[in-house]
Write a structure and sequence with these properties.
about 180 residues, mainly alpha, two-stranded antiparallel sheet, 6 helices, 2 strands, about 55% helix, about 5% strand, flat
Length: about 180
């Protein structure tokens, strides 16, 4: 029969004493480390994976990486290279065009001008859509067929505010022009 060594005995004694301390603390502080929670595992929130490495690069690293990547793009037109670059590195069109020109890729100036016009038109259309949507929301919320301005609603759900007749009566008939040099105030 093998006898435990002196170090094994000390280790087991220390482990028993720390277990005893944790058990005593659990009696003082319910829900902390105790006899029933020593063997249970702590659940942690799962970490989200990082986006692709090429999407996390700054401009200097993209340019360095793109030099090697461009060597593999044989037999492709500059337009195809620009589309692939934009998708691979997760940048917008102006950034892709600027960086490819820094790398020496010759892009057709007519294509770049057409792309800029297209981007400007898309931006303008989004802005106009947002403006018309905001105006429609404001008009629906603040007026209806009976009221020019709805100040609020009663507890029963009836609107109150300024009616269209009151609005027309309070509007000034004519506004002085700048040529008359009169201040309306």
């Amino acid at each position: 029969m093998l006898l435990p060594s002196w170090t094994d005995w000390v280790f087991q004694a220390r482990r028993r004493s720390s277990f005893q301390r944790n058990r005593e603390n659990a009696l003082c502080f319910p829900g902390t480390i105790g006899y029933e929670t020593l063997d249970s595992t702590v659940s942690r929130k799962a970490k989200r994976p990082l986006p692709p490495r090429t999407s996390r690069m700054n401009r200097a690293r993209r340019l360095q990486s793109a030099r090697h990547w461009l060597a593999t793009q044989t037999g492709r037109t500059p337009v195809q290279i620009a589309k692939s670059y934009r998708k691979r590195y997760g940048v917008d069109w102006p950034c892709a065009i600027h960086e490819l020109s820094q790398l020496g890729v010759q892009l057709d100036s007519a294509w770049v001008a057409q792309l800029n016009r297209s981007l400007l038109g898309a931006h303008r259309a989004r802005r106009e859509t947002a403006d018309t949507q905001a105006m429609a929301d404001c008009e629906q919320a603040d007026s209806n067929d009976e009221f020019a301005y709805i100040a609020g609603y009663t507890p029963n759900g009836f609107p109150f505010g300024v009616t269209w007749d009151e609005w027309r009566q309070s509007a000034p008939e004519s506004c002085p022009t700048d040529s008359e040099n009169e201040c309306p105030f």
